[in-house]
Design goal:
This is VOC family protein. Keywords: Metal-binding. 20% of the residues lie in helices and 38% in strands. By secondary structure, it is α+β, with helices and mostly antiparallel strands. It is globular. It has a single domain, classed as 2,3-Dihydroxybiphenyl 1,2-Dioxygenase, domain 1.
Amino acid sequence: MARKNGIAELGEVMQLAFVPPDFMAAVKHWTEIMGVGPFFLMEGIHLEDMRYKGQPTEAVFDLALAYWGDVQIELIRPRDNHPSIYSGEYAEVGGGLHHVCILVDDIEEAYDVCREQGAKIVIEGSLGDSQVIYVDPGSGPGGLVEILQQGEGGPGLFAMIKDAGKDWDGSDPLRSL
């Protein structure tokens, strides 16, 4: 198999992610104005072996996921000020697009491609058997790319969230997982 040349060749964008200044206002906007939902909330997430710019960090965050057709929408709420992409220089996007996400089958190949392209790894870690890296390909805030190698339960979780939105009637817009 030939080596993939650019980061975009690793996979298609499957998610648009935001770190809104007012998390609940963003949920309301996406559910009531955009008609996207329901959102599924995961609270108190801390990646295992989480590193920010190569250094360990104890950053904790919440996230809510929903689907707009085939595109996943992620809303992120930082829970602390530990070094991460959710505070400081990478959070300065005024509620606009924070990052996109692509899924890969081989995270090591993604690391190699990112190194070859000169992209900086800004966050890395794992959640169960899922592994993730966030890279800055050089455009700065708002231009981050999340690269996720899903673990065994990931596809089923994403499918459940997507299915919940197919005939959603607007009730119970924010549901806990």
